[in-house]
Design brief:
Largest sheet: 8 strands, mixed
Strand content: 15-25%
Number of strands: 14
Bound molecules: ligand DP6
Distance between the termini: 18 Å
CATH class of the largest domain: Alpha Beta
Shape: globular
Number of helices: 8
Helix content: 25-40%
Number of domains: 2
CATH topology of the largest domain: Ribosomal Protein S5, domain 2
């Protein structure tokens, strides 16, 4: 007899970036992100008990297609959580997953994918033991397990904003799981994020490799210090809603992230010429029109164009008139701050 569990979990975009880790997915600095709404992964976990417990038995399907290439990442996730979840070798798993965004969009699916899978595992624990966690403990556990799959995934569990990493200014913060940031000014509750898809191909350097290049990086100690300082500062900005300060801090963080990549050994560049074209166009428009347009980047060439909802019409006009020309196949994804994962029937 088989049982099934299904969760939908969103992606997130960091405002203060996680870049560098040690030990078992422990971040070298604290980070904070907006949880997104429209970019999400839906994962169904079907499980049935099996006779032998020597090894994992996993089949993964992406959009109904068997994906052998996804298996190693899931096996390594199961290995990473095996000290916390003891039953994984006792069941045969079928994992059916799909993303709301095109697989080849250059949008990382690890945050949404790993958080959706971790939520399924936590629900499975509840089903097996007949024990119900309270909601906060359930999400904390799902966040902790997600982190062991992909660091940034642990922030996707919460609505609005979530921070991850022990930090003196954030009570209850931990290196092992994210915590919700609930004091945000209303302006941030429906902040918009249009993701301008400059390059929809596979990333040339994975985040995992990028993180490892922070070991022995000449600027590592300063970077970690700056990031932690920025987290203290953004905490106040997120409370008081000062968009000028928000813009400066978020853009500095994005550029500092890429500066770390450019000064690693070996060094690498994830910017593309069109990334810079878009950034310059947005800055030019902002300077001329006094808008609160903000750019940020993750570890790739796509530009996350952030703006308050009240400026959406103006932003969309700029996107359609000037920015889509620099996007691959004119493609972009309209997203905004979202309300976290949901369990599906
Ligand atoms: C630049 O979470 O993808 O997006 O822990 O190795 O899976 P792993 O890395 P990942 O790194 C994300 C890096 C980032 C910044 C951020 O999201 O904070």
């Amino acid at each position: 007899m088989s049982n099934s569990i299904k969760w939908q979990s969103p992606s997130n975009i960091a405002l203060v970036k996680y870049w560098g880790k040690r030990d078992k997915q422990i971040p070298t600095n604290a980070s904070i992100s907006f949880t997104l709404k429209n970019c999400h992964t839906t994962t169904e976990l079907i499980y049935e008990s099996k006779e032998t417990t020597a090894d994992y038995d996993i089949n993964v399907f992406l959009e109904d297609e068997l994906k052998e290439s996804f298996k190693p990442k899931i096996i390594s996730f199961f290995d990473n959580i095996s000290h916390k979840v003891s039953f994984l070798k006792q069941y045969k798993f079928t994992i059916k997953t799909s993303n709301s965004f095109p697989h080849s969009s250059g949008i990382a699916s690890s945050a949404s994918g790993m958080s959706a899978l971790a939520l399924c595992i936590c629900s499975m624990e509840e089903q097996l033991t007949d024990k119900k966690f309270n909601k906060a403990d359930f999400l904390k556990r799902a966040s902790m397990l997600s982190r062991l799959g992909s660091g940034s995934a642990c922030r996707s569990l919460y609505p609005g904003l979530a921070s991850w990493g022990k930090h003196e200014a954030i009570p209850g913060s931990s290196d092992e799981y994210a915590t919700p940031f609930t004091d945000a000014h209303p302006i941030f509750k429906d902040f918009q994020d249009t993701i301008l898809l400059v390059d929809q191909g596979q990333k040339e350097v994975s985040s995992t490799v990028g993180h490892s290049l922070m070991n022995g990086h000449p600027f590592a100690a300063n970077r970690f210090q700056e990031a932690n300082k920025n987290l203290s500062i953004i905490k106040d900005i997120l409370k008081n809603g000062n968009l000028q300060d928000f813009t400066k801090l978020v853009e500095q963080e994005a550029l500092m992230l890429h500066a770390m990549m450019m000064t690693s050994d070996p060094y690498f560049l994830l910017f593309k010429p069109n990334t810079l074209q878009i950034i310059n166009k947005i800055w030019e428009y902002r300077n001329q029109n006094n808008t609160n347009f903000v750019i940020t980047l993750d570890a790739g060439a796509n530009v996350h164009f952030l703006y308050p909802k009240s400026e959406a019409t103006e932003a969309m006009t700029l996107i359609n008139n000037e920015l889509i020309a620099f996007c691959e196949n004119n493609a972009y994804i309209s997203d905004e701050v979202g309300s976290g994962p949901i369990q599906l029937a």
